[in-house]
Amino acid sequence: MIIGKPFLTTEQIQNKVKELADEISRDYEGQEILVVGILKGAFMFLSDIVKLIQVPMDLDFLVASSYIKTQSAGEMQIHADLREDIRGRHVLLIEDIVDTGITLNYLHKLLMERNPASLKICTFLDKKSCRKVEVDLDYIGYQIPDHYVVGYGLDYENKYRNLPYIAVFKEESAK
Ligand code: 5GP
Fold first, then answer.
1. Ligand 1 test: best mutation among 96, 147, 159, most atoms within 8 Å of CB?
2. Which of 59, 62, 96, 135 could cross-link with 41 by S-S, CB 3.0 to 4.6 Å?
């Protein structure tokens, strides 16, 4: 058995996504937003949450990574940048999980240089105890302990992203 039972079930995930979407809809009422998904990991969370956010939006994507296997490389790579000009727009970044904070700290600085009207961050999971650099998170789904998790968009070597739930992954059992 490579992966244990769900750590967060599909139902828990969907309930939390709805809660977050409602909060975001209230906060941005009367405004138009630009939702930016950080790929690949956020693709499933992004596609669920945008269906439930009740304000007009445009969508764009950033492909970024700072990870090698289950350890942070600590170095950021932007594989594909935004196509939209974010100047003067209300940008909402959607991330799957925050661990060291290196990815979002870097992306926040990068995007703030482009002068958005506002920039907020929504992450589905937060491993706060692993933080190495500071990052302000506006919307958090679940705080989780220091486990490596897969499923619901999250991978191990690009696998398991398609699981409809989130499970703890143990590297040694993959052999
Ligand atoms: P950070 O830069 O905050 O250390 O890490 C953010 C990125 O690392 C996430 O977008 C995700 O791709 C990856 N990551 C961090 N923790 C986990 C984890 O528990 N499981 C998976 N699959 N990826 C993780």
1. 96
2. 96
Question: How far apart are the CA of 93 and the centre of ligand 1, in A?
Answer: 15
What is the C-alpha separation between 144 and 141, in angstroms, rounded? 10
- Does the domain at 2-170 match CATH 3.40.50.2020? Answer given as yes
Residues 7-40 pLDDT 10s: 999 999 999 999 999 999 999 999 999 999 999 9
Q: Ligand 1: does its nearest atom lie under 6 Å from the Cβ of 122?
A: no
Domain boundaries of the chain, sorted by first residue: 2-170
Note if the pTM is more than 0.90. Answer: yes
Q: What is the rounded CA–CA span in Å between residue 51 and residue 107?
A: 24
Which tokens hold the place of 77? 């790579």
